[in-house]
Amino acid sequence: MQQIKALNKIPNDWDYELKKNGISCNLFELINKLLSFHKAGKEIYPAFKDIYKAFELCSFSNTKVVIFGQDPYHQPGLANGLAFAVNKGNKIPGSLKNIYKEIQDDVGDCVYNLGNLEQWAAQGVLLLNSSLTVNKSEAGSHKSIGWNILIDSIIDLLNVKGGVIFLLWGRDAQEKEKLIDKNVNHIFKSSHPSPLSSYRGFFGCKHFSLTNELLIKNKKQPILW
Fold first, then answer.
1. C-alpha distances in angstroms, 222 versus 22, 107, 210?
2. Active site residue 71
3. pTM of this prediction?
4. How confident is the prediction for the chain on average, in pLDDT?
5. Across residues 46-51, what is the average pLDDT?
6. Which of 62, 166, 195, 223 could lock 94 by a disulfide, CB 3.0 to 4.6 Å apart?
7. Does residue 67 contact residue 190 with C-beta atoms inside 8 Å?
8. Are strands 134-135 and 44-45 parallel, antiparallel or unpaired?
9. 13, 50, 71, 156: which is the annotated catalytic residue?
10. Which of 54, 76, 48, 51 is nearest to 67 (CA)?
């Protein structure tokens, strides 16, 4: 399928910057695995056109904040290519509901609460899942097919950029900490916002106000959450 084969080129300015900085990102095996799933009749989320939406809506040059999720929602009609987000009109999932609650408690107002999070991406928030695809009804099914090659290359590129704030929520996201250059970037960590773990440190983490304080300190526009 042509849309899957096109995944070897990261949209916006990402592909250019990866090549410019000599960062290798060979996705040949990953693409072949996605093709094999497709040929076997597996339903894959998000839709192929949305797999790289995080990069389409948030350019390398504009990226100020990175939020990691785990993998896309594996239920029909939810995943839209942005970590934690759902398309407008869908019921807000528990994790995102808790994110909105923490924003409300932290900064006093949650401006964008319709679920799709595109307004965050437009302001420089890169909403990345550790795996960008998943099989229908099979959580974590694409965890080991090679998305780490892309995600790790993106972290390498952001290390070159520097000045990026990483919000690492939960164990899967925090596995990426070792790849982040702490000398030039900043990391905030907490438990995952899932209803199962949000009370272990996500609630009260104040990551949204802390992020904006750091952006203002570095003479950057704060995020309107």
1. 31, 12, 10
2. yes
3. 0.95
4. 94
5. 93
6. 195
7. no
8. antiparallel
9. 71
10. 54
